[in-house]
Design brief:
15% helix; 5-stranded antiparallel sheet; mainly beta; single chain; 127 residues; 1 helix
């Protein structure tokens, strides 16, 4: 049997790389537009960048999503789905999905309008 022995410096380097990799994923896409009808809405990033909320557009933590004369359905990576009706604004304040439910969390602010929420794997987190 082969055994891998790592010295302290190598262990620290691996830990740093894993942390950086996790943080880059955390800043990446957490879901996307699954369905869109009517006039596309918008996705506004914290940088001020504004995107059309079209089919397959990605969403990230801290995005603001707004519909106009149309509807959207956003699907998150844990299979949670949020359906937005016309003239709805939501703010994705925090989204963390980890296969360990104790490390997962979601915080959305419904600023205006109407939405339907269907939990995915985050709904399995014990209260």
């Amino acid at each position: 049997m082969l055994q891998l022995v790592l010295n302290k410096a190598t262990k620290i380097s691996v830990a740093i790389l894993l942390t950086l990799s996790f943080n880059m994923n955390a800043a990446g896409q957490i879901g996307g537009v699954l369905e869109q009808s009517g006039k596309p809405g918008s996705i506004t990033r914290t940088s001020g960048e504004q995107l059309l909320a079209e089919l397959n557009a990605g969403v990230q933590s801290l995005d603001n999503v707004e519909t106009e004369n149309g509807r959207l359905k956003i699907k998150f990576i844990d299979d949670t789905q949020v359906s937005l009706t016309e003239h709805t604004i939501i703010e994705i304040n925090e989204y963390v999905y980890d296969p360990n439910p104790n490390n997962s969390k979601m915080a959305l602010n419904f600023a205006q309008g109407t939405a339907r929420f269907a939990t995915g794997k985050l709904g399995l987190v014990p209260r």
